[in-house]
Amino acid sequence: MIATTEKPARRGRGARKTARQARDFTMLPALKRKLPLTEPMDAEQIERLDAASMHILENVGVVFRDPIALDDWRRMGARVMDETVFLDRGLVRELIKTIPETFTYHARNPQNNLPFGRDHAIFVPMTGAPFLRDLDDVRRNPTLEDLANFHKLAHMLPALHSSAHHIVEPYDHPISQRHLRITYSSMKHSDKTFMGMTTSPRNAEDVLDMCAILFGADYLEDHPVVTGNCNGNSPLVWDETMLGAMRAFCRRNQPVLCSPFVLGGANTPASVAPAVAQLNAEALSALAYTQVIRKGAPAIYGHYLSTVSMKSGAPMAGTPEIGLMNMMIGQMARYYGVPWRSSANLGGAKTFDAQAGYESASTLMALQMAGTNYMWHAAGWNEAGMHCSMAKFVVDAEQCAMAYRMAEGVRWDDFDEAVAAVADIGPGGHYLGHPHTLENFQRAFFMPDLFDNNSIEQWQTEGGLDVNERALAYTRDLLNAYEEPKLEAGVDEALRDYIARREREIPAADALNQEY
Amino acid sequence: MIATTEKPARRGRGARKTARQARDFTMLPALKRKLPLTEPMDAEQIERLDAASMHILENVGVVFRDPIALDDWRRMGARVMDETVFLDRGLVRELIKTIPETFTYHARNPQNNLPFGRDHAIFVPMTGAPFLRDLDDVRRNPTLEDLANFHKLAHMLPALHSSAHHIVEPYDHPISQRHLRITYSSMKHSDKTFMGMTTSPRNAEDVLDMCAILFGADYLEDHPVVTGNCNGNSPLVWDETMLGAMRAFCRRNQPVLCSPFVLGGANTPASVAPAVAQLNAEALSALAYTQVIRKGAPAIYGHYLSTVSMKSGAPMAGTPEIGLMNMMIGQMARYYGVPWRSSANLGGAKTFDAQAGYESASTLMALQMAGTNYMWHAAGWNEAGMHCSMAKFVVDAEQCAMAYRMAEGVRWDDFDEAVAAVADIGPGGHYLGHPHTLENFQRAFFMPDLFDNNSIEQWQTEGGLDVNERALAYTRDLLNAYEEPKLEAGVDEALRDYIARREREIPAADALNQEY
Fold first, then answer.
1. Same domain, A347 and A236
2. Distance from B3 to chain A by nearest Cα, in Å?
3. Does residue B59 fall inside a structural domain?
């Protein structure tokens, strides 16, 4: 269904300038939401859920497959049996108290700094896809160039607040050294905030060293600049790789997402509220551990959350229970006073078809009503995360802009003036030429670039393209209009030197043996 | 992208029975929602909006292009100048007080009766499409047979609560007589509730006469059995055709939707809150008139609501402002104590592509959060209502089932039992074989029939079909499994006699001259 297979043309500065002028690439500020939240639990149900989670932490315990963490917990007075840590609710509550409820993300372009937590929300692209659907809609393994293209798109799309990290896995570089190139690509192609690889403790240290080069080592001490993600293994297990990476981030005072990886019904009970009770226990155990590592370190209540089809065992997206669980998790995170992350715009479809649209919009709308602070996987995710679609990436980003607009709520500043216009126009008239309309039409109603609302005749005249085809053409245009926000020459050189040194030190041949 | 072009095969009773046994076609009861509503306005803003609407009714006035209505209003003491009626807020409030906040829809199968209003919601298919996308994904003018197929699907799909009326326009029958065949098709192919044509006052009388044959004339007096829709011409105009049809429905005590037809920015001010203020005034003027016609007659606060692209003038679907306006309208309807209707699952796409999915899901989710009682256009709507898609019809119906599930909220009945399962399984285990899972997996997490969540390999093995292709195959299967809920022979004969008589009386040749 591809209209054209030509590659993005190399165009001159003039053409790029024209394309740039046609669109505003300025990043939207961090969303400050005003729409009321959807809170399905009353105070008693929140306390019931909290009590169940605390009961699990105290009596079932959490496995930390990591000698350092076990020592840390013993030192904190927790009961440890083999690898299982039993966490007293008093200790957990005491520890999570020092997690900052709000902080500011600092980007290398200070105009892209982001207040974070409470009513603020940010949209972050998907990461971790082993495949992409490329500009020709071909599903294949990605390269560093593909990754760079996604970082460029994340840089340009106004509702995306981060360039993330390995949006797609660059298979053309040895896995053992990949984190260095991924980090450099995030830093180089965008001046928004980004994410840091947590594929091993040492890799995390490399990322943080590169952040220290970009921002200054002292600066990191007081300024969150990067986000690491640590996945748990539900039910109730944290492993050494993730905990080691967590320690690296916490020690440098950089935010970590504490993310149980939940496939509802497979690694949780097959029921909404009990699944959240388990997930909540898991998140709390990691959040508490961040404060054992460093009191006051920024940490984010996270999770990856899917429900499993009991027919096939496959994870599903866009189902009603995912929405409900997100709404409940939001309530728990606010109960504990901790910012939280969820996953937006998820899809399980194999192509960018209507299924992908329904799933993504259902997930995004539920997250927005739930009040998620860190809206991860907000662009490109399809096929249960197995591929990132270039077409879906730009459409999702526009959906984020629409969700943003909705969450801002209703403005009343022109109410009296506009109601007066009703008298001007009177019954049977129309408003298109009225001064209030002329003054307000640009901001009044969102006009999507990627949705076609023309008549079928107009649409046919323009080639009869579906949204996948239109989005691919749009993506080509964007990439042609890209302008690099140049790194300072000295910083760029220092980053390249660091990468060169580390690549000499890390054997590329170990690629396949390294845990990933 | 069609996998097969073969027509639905004629199959024997055995095959139909097998297909039926595989799926449960039992209608879901009217949804009783438990999820909290999203209410963007505080009490002061609701009163500000109410005051603005009342100011419009008192000072700008509403045009009733209908001598009978103008006489009625004069009789009620309203100031009438030419065709403009100025409605005092006291009179409006007094009149709308007698609109029932709740009532029960009665279907010819009493098991399909529907409590309606307040927390109850029902899903009703789209209507009025001049084209369909058929089982071969061909866009063409519909026939009575196509309409019958949609009525059959509406009958079978559990989350649809009504067979509606002219889901598609049957072009193979003279327009002047079409309302008779449409009504008969709704009544014959489904035993759920349905809608009644309002294309002229006389057509409405025909529909109501047919309802009297189906249910008994006395029965109608105390039992809502059918719904009529009366569109307004925004801004602030009601015409003779609609008002005449409204009188027919109200006199027989049958519910009417009072639906301003709003293209935000074109026939309202270009701003969210002022557009709702105007729409609210329009709806109130018609709601008040229903009570002039007959005190206590059931009436529903309605509207068709789109925003207009200020680039092209085209109506848009799935935009954030439509969501916000719906949430506000819900608050106003509840403020007045009147049930309300909105439009779900709208799409502006020309094919059943990802755009259609995003738009539909965004609209549906917003409506669900807004607490809409009568979710019209909930299946099939695409291309801004210009076509009804057979594929989208069944996918939308499944989306309604998912929205239904979400709106039911969280159940806690198995909470303690399932939390106990966490201790049984312990860290690192899995739940698939646990007794709680085995007992609960069927109801725990929604498993869509029409979304594919399998691996890409499995999906390819099964033909690599997108959701449009899968939905068309699914629709063929459904139609093959259809069993007609037979009308009682005497009633059927009386209906046919009525149609035959009226078709002798109504000249088919007038077809093109009749207002429609």
1. yes
2. 15
3. no
Q: Does B284 touch chain A (CB under 8 A)?
A: no
Minimal Cα distance from A369: which residue of B?
Answer: B38
Is there a single domain that holds both residue B357 and residue B423? no
User: Global pTM?
Assistant: 0.95
Q: Is A392 on the interface with B (CB under 8 A)?
A: yes
B294/B166 same-domain check: yes
pLDDT digits (tens, 9 = 90+) for B412-458: 999 999 999 999 999 999 999 999 999 998 889 999 999 999 999 99
**Mean of pLDDT values over B485-512:** 90
Q: Are residues A164 and A216 in the same domain?
A: yes
B278 contact residues in A (CB cutoff 8 A): 419, 422
Let me know whether A144 and A269 are in one domain.
yes
Measured in Å, how far apart are chain B's first and last C-alpha atoms?
36
Residue A86 — pLDDT band, cuts 50, 70, 90? very high
Q: What is the ipTM of this complex?
A: 0.95
- The answer to the question of residue B385 being in a domain is yes
Same domain, A389 and A421: no
Q: Which residues in chain B are contacts of A402 at CB distance < 8 A?
A: 318-320, 362
Task: Give the span between the Cα atoms of A259 and A232, in whole angstroms.
Answer: 6
Q: What total of structural domains would you count in chain A?
A: 2
Q: Do B343 and B429 share a domain, yes or no? A: no
The closest alpha carbon to B103, from B254, B274, B313, B250, belongs to B254
Residues counted in chain A: 516
Compute the distance between CA of residue A454 and CA of residue B467 in angstroms, rounded to an integer.
Answer: 24
Does A47 reside within a domain? no
- Cα end-to-end span (Å), chain A: 35
pLDDT digits (tens, 9 = 90+) for B205-257: 999 999 999 999 999 999 999 999 999 999 999 999 999 999 999 999 999 99
Angle at B424 (CA atoms; ends B420, B426), nearest 5 degrees: 110
Query: Is B492 part of a structural domain of the chain?
Result: no
Note the maximum CA span of chain B. Answer: 79
Domain range enclosing A373: 95-408
pLDDT per position as a tens digit, B167-192: 999 999 999 999 999 999 999 999 99
Within 8 A of B450 by CB-CB distance, chain A residues are 355
Q: Taking CB atoms and an 8 Å limit, are B312 and A454 in contact across chains? A: yes
